[in-house]
Amino acid sequence: MTSTGQEPSIFTRIAAREIPATIVAETERIIAFEDIAPQAPVHVVITTKTQQYANVVELAGGDPGLMAELVAVAAGIAAERANGQFRLVFNTGEAVGQTVFHVHAHLLARTGPGTPAGDSSLGEGSLAFR
Ligand code: AMP
Q1: Residues 83, 8: Cα–Cα separation, whole Å
Q2: For labelling, which of 64, 90, 108, 119 has a CA lying 20 to 30 Å from the CA of 78?
Q3: Which residues surround ligand 1 with Cβ inside 6 Å?
Q4: Residues 85-120: pLDDT tens digits?
């Protein structure tokens, strides 16, 4: 159980090293790891260590500083791996494909320079906008 009485989410268990993942960045309050089912050449999940916010709306309202920290971690990873050009997707609600109700962003990017902005390899499957 977490301090809020919820069962630990899969992302909480990754942060606790109970479930293996390829962790690519970590701060005191944020953790980022490779998505297990990548839908773009760079596909990193960035989440808060607390699971008290189910989605981006709750996070932005509840702790804007933590939201800014999450975006800064995304930007840092994209600077290292994708020339600083990226998409940040927050699925919000089951109807648009949210499956884990612990706020997280999908960082989607191409590796290497000169990526066309409309490249269809960014965001297939549930991250494609249909
Ligand atoms: P969403 O559908 O927006 O809730 O995103 C959840 C994401 O978490 C999906 O892209 C999954 O592929 C990813 N995911 C689920 N379990 C794991 C895991 N054990 N390690 C890494 N990524 C995961």
Answers
A1: 35
A2: 64
A3: 10, 19, 21, 33, 35-37, 45, 91, 97-100, 126
A4: 999 999 999 999 999 999 999 999 998 655 554 555
